[in-house]
Amino acid sequence: MDFRFSAEAQAVRDEAEKFVKSEWQNPGYDLTGGLAGWHGSEEEREAGHEVARQFAKKLVNRGWYTMHWPSEYGGQDASIEKQLAYREVMSYHDAPAALGGGLVAPVLMVHGQEWQKQLFLPQIANADIEFSQGFSEPDAGSDLAGLKTRAVRDGDDYVVSGQKIWGTYRNDWIHILVRTDPDAPKHRGITYLLARLKDEDGNYMPGIQVRGIKDGTNNHRWDELFMENWRVPANNIIGEENRGWYAAMTTLSFERSNIGRPAQLLRTLEQFTDWCGMVRDEGGDTPIARAEIRHRLAEWRVRVETLRSLCYRVGWMQSEGMIPQKESSMVKFFGDELFQHIYRGLSQIMDGYGNLLPGNGDRFPLPDDGFLPARGWQSIGTSIGGGTREIQKNIIAQRGLGLPR
Amino acid sequence: MDLGLTEDQEMLRSMAREFIEQETPRTFVRDMEEDDRGFTADMWQKIAQVGWLGLIVPEEHGGTGQNLVDLGILLEEVGHGVMPGPFFNTALTTVAILDAGSDAQKAEFLPRIAAGDLIATTAILEPYSRLDANGINLEASASGDGYTLNGTKMFVENAHAADYLLVAARTGGSGEDGITLLLVDAQSDGVSVDKLKTIATDNQCEVTFNNVSVPGGNVLGEAGNGWSVLRLLLQKGAALRCTQMVGALQEVLDMTVEYVKNRVQFGRPIGSFQAIQHYCANMATDVDGSRFITYQAIWRLGEGLPSDLEVSSAKAWVSDSAQRVAATAHQCHGAIGFTQEHDLQLFTRRLKAWEVSFGDGDYHRERVAQAMDI
């Protein structure tokens, strides 16, 4: 038993710490939460994306953007522990440094055709391309395999019709799951495609329509994608026809401990504590002088510590070659609930100040770079996106504890 | 980073489980709840023979010189099997002697402990039941080359069976200053032990000291400066108690999962209902969280690293989790789990006792707040 990082991972941690302090300044957009700006003008949104892209470029130059990739694709084969150490530091500083390539890179490495690997992987590694993700549909959320977007083979193309939702369909390319055999059992009639959403001039392809969706704070957060007889070259397939579900489930040995959650929450608690030190009532007391607040903060700190130990457990299992399953679901739902408790709770403790958004000038110093109330709102979505809390608990109970379906 | 056990530790664990299943099965646990002493001399000798009492005792004093993490792993099994007897108390006293004892004291006490010839327990709390330095007020006045003790200690576990009591007393001063730790022969004139009836039948005792003479050579550490030793001992006690609770919690979870797989209502196992599945998922998350936050705490203590925040985080989380897990286990078991004949109550009652042992969630949250500098 040893809770210390290896010397190698510790070195990455130290370097990343130095790097992020000098190279990252929060521009006033909550990029880690996927929230670029508040009352979401498109300009703010674009500006936020640009900041994230510029930072990704710095990570590319530093060699960190794809440290987790196999060396045959230009990565560094970084150990799980190194990835974990790196991500913990980045998240603590609220830097948008999700390791590059997202879901699509490992799928391409394992199932992609040679031309796809050669065309896309270098662009991904350079942070020159981003893919939209076309998985969820209006009637296929938790039951993703029930998706209905239909693709019919016609000559050298698939003709695709249907609807996707809860993505942002503003990129040139999309990786998308479509149904190619409606008569097969649901997991076995799905095909995985890479496709152009926009032509080289930036116009949507024929048959594509996109409509924005705002969240309850009027923030343009997602889009809907409508596809009608959209022609996608059949050669764009990833893997085999009707085997797309299994290709989409591919994961490489990339770190997935969710360590960013406790790191970010720890930072928030520290910033809140600092803020309390600045704010005093007429008697000179800070909010922390109130026992009930002090103990709520301590309880959150205890939970952050517990969550972090569970995240480390996931990372440790991966580095031992074990495959975390119920363990990943635990950190997901535990982390989501803690995110909700902390951001809602802090915003409540701050009374009316907890509802202030940035943009009120410098008169009111706010903790957590002013993101607190926005994250309180956003927290509602954490236990829904990426697999609902209920799905996570089903996984723990059925696959982890062996309870019957 | 390595969150697993070594091969030796795995072996220690599996041998401990086997020993407990064989020597102190649930029928024995139940018998011992009815027994005045709460364990048997035979059992104690067997524990000595398999080397548990000498586990952390250095080889030169008759033990095998293993570390605090090893002791934690063993205690996890002791909790898993709700093994009766004063093993926890004797082990914690051993920890104190190792931390602060003189060479002479180590030579005097450790071989006897390792051989199973000396049972010991810690006497810390007083009627006000406070774990801070101001809670230590049992009077130890200097007399001759020793001390005379007067006062009362509360919730002294297994004092009725102990040969020695490690007593935290006040030799003067106030607060952290003036606390002295003394190894007191339980047979001394003026020591009286009154066993209390408790929900866990865990042999909590009230011990009164009436002009009890203790030789100066029995001071553990430095007279008047006992707080630093005691402070660390309280941390180790809390972390070790957590390991014991983790073992018990795992068994409560396993017991519940087994039950809901087999209990049929409405023509199907109740474990197929989502409400029950989500209860079980919550329990599993509480139990796993308890395990790894505890491992972190005990590992840090074993390494001699600053551990205030980690130990108090562990005890706060485990104390509260334990009550949630036990309550949910009962809900899943329905009426049968509420009965005397079902084993679940053996765990629930002990987890209730251990919730407050070495500080409950509130106490440790306050300590976490202090460690956060707020």
Protein described:
The complex is a heterodimer of chains A (405) and B (374). With 405 residues, chain A is of the alpha+beta class. Chain A folds into 3 domains: 7-99, Orthogonal Bundle (Butyryl-Coa Dehydrogenase, subunit A, domain 1); 131-248, Butyryl-CoA Dehydrogenase, subunit A, domain 2; 260-400, Butyryl-CoA Dehydrogenase, subunit A, domain 3, CATH 1.20.140. Chain A is 42% helix and 14% strand. Chain A has helices at residues 7-23, 42-62, 80-92, 104-111, 114-125, 244-248, 260-278, 291-319, 326-349, 372-382, 389-400; strands spanning 131-134, 150-154, 157-167, 173-179, 190-196, 208-214, 220-233, 237-238. In chain A, the strands form 2 sheets. Chain A has a 4-stranded mixed beta sheet with strand order 1-4-5-8. Chain A has a 4-stranded antiparallel beta sheet with strand order 2-3-7-6, with no helix packed on it. In chain A, strand 2 (150-154) and strand 3 form a beta hairpin. The longest helix of chain A has 29 residues, at 291-319. Chain A starts with 6 loop residues before the first helix and ends in a 5-residue tail after the last helix. Residues 35-39 of chain A have low confidence and may be disordered. Chain B is of the alpha+beta class and 374 residues long. In chain B, strand 9 and strand 10 (268-269) form a beta hairpin. The model of chain B has no long low-confidence stretch (mean pLDDT 98). Chains A and B meet through helix 7, helix 8, helix 9 and helix 11 of A and helix 7, strand 10, helix 8, helix 9 and helix 11 of B.
SSE order and pairing:
The complex is a heterodimer of chains A (405) and B (374).
Chain A: H1 7-23, H2 42-62, H3 80-92, H4 104-111, H5 114-125, E1 131-134, E2 150-154, E3 157-167, E4 173-179, E5 190-196, E6 208-214, E7 220-233, E8 237-238, H6 244-248, H7 260-278, H8 291-319, H9 326-349, H10 372-382, H11 389-400
Parallel strand pairs in A: 1-4
Antiparallel strand pairs in A: 2-3, 3-7, 4-5, 5-8, 6-7
Chain B: H1 7-23, H2 26-34, H3 41-49, H4 68-80, H5 87-100, H6 103-115, E1 120-123, E2 139-143, E3 146-157, E4 164-170, E5 179-185, E6 191-195, E7 204-214, E8 219-220, H7 227-262, E9 264-265, E10 268-269, H8 274-303, H9 308-333, H10 344-356, H11 361-371
Parallel strand pairs in B: 1-4
Antiparallel strand pairs in B: 2-3, 3-7, 4-5, 5-8, 6-7, 9-10
Helix pairs in contact in B: 1-4, 4-7, 5-6, 5-7, 7-8, 7-9, 7-10, 8-9, 9-10, 9-11
